[in-house]
Amino acid sequence: MPMKGLMVMKKKFPVKLIFYIAVVFFSFLYNATLGKVVLGVFILYMLFSNRNIFYEISATKAYKNNQLEKALGLFEKAAKTTQNPRPKITYGYLLLKTGDIEKSSQVFKEMIDSDIDIDSKMKAKSNYALVLWKSGDIDGAINLLEEVLSEYTSTVVYGSLGYLYILKGDLEKAVEFNEKAYNYNDSDPIILDNLGNAYYLAGNLSKSEEMYKELMKLNPQFPEAYYNYSLLLKKLGRFNEALENMKKADNFNLSFLSNLTKSDIEKHIKEIEDIIAREQ
Fold first, then answer.
1. Does the CA dihedral 173-178-179-184 come out positive or negative?
2. pLDDT tens-digit profile of 199-225?
3. Which residues cross the membrane (predicted)?
4. What is each CA distance from 202 to 60, 171, 237, 239, in whole angstroms?
5. What is the residue-wise DSSP string for 25-80?
6. Which has the closest alpha carbon to 116: 124, 104, 106?
7. pTM metric for this prediction
8. Fewest CB atoms within 10 A around its CB: which of 14, 134, 148, 192?
């Protein structure tokens, strides 16, 4: 994967940690009971000062178990108990994914206006672009992602911008950009789906099929991949395969960030089933 540059980060020597360990050590030398008390206090302090890590781990587990409300609460706690921007970015994204545009917008605006590292700021801007899109400002979202991409290249930005170009309807630009994204990362499922779908919409079915063959080998975990592939298969006259993939799309829970609806999927399932029935 191409890199814009290598950032060397200087790690601060953990002076405080060494000081605390030294205090515990000399406490034991002076008196065993005192040493145990000081050690206990030190352990409690370390647990308390690093509680954001516990919140993040618990939140991630809750999210994987589809306990979204619990995950949101834990990510919010993690964001409030550390200066590290990472849990705040995840919290803002999850707010958006569950449809809370206003709160998500507030989280990312605060991050963009704050004094955080450039990597985190670019991630906040990228996510805020999605907020703009879901608020109905697709042009603003595209402009912001183009601005981010001029300073900061990442697979996520390529995936988001490529998707928005497709939604915008400029197929020539969508194909050109998603080919560029594919050259940047040819194994990312979202980029493969974007390019395959752009080719399909532009009428290049053979190239679209090539992309979807690559994509299906990766077992993508989002409904658009199967929905779009099904549309291609239907166009190619492979109706049984089209039905199978549309039903796979129907097995997913649709998030607020998905541009699909349950009725879209069900409509296409019925259409394909009717075609198959007529051919029998």
1. positive
2. 999 999 999 999 999 999 999 999 999
3. 20-48
4. 39, 6, 18, 21
5. HHHHHH-HHHHHHHHHHHHHHHHHHTHHHHHHHHHHHHHHTT-HHHHHHHHHHHHH
6. 124
7. 0.79
8. 14
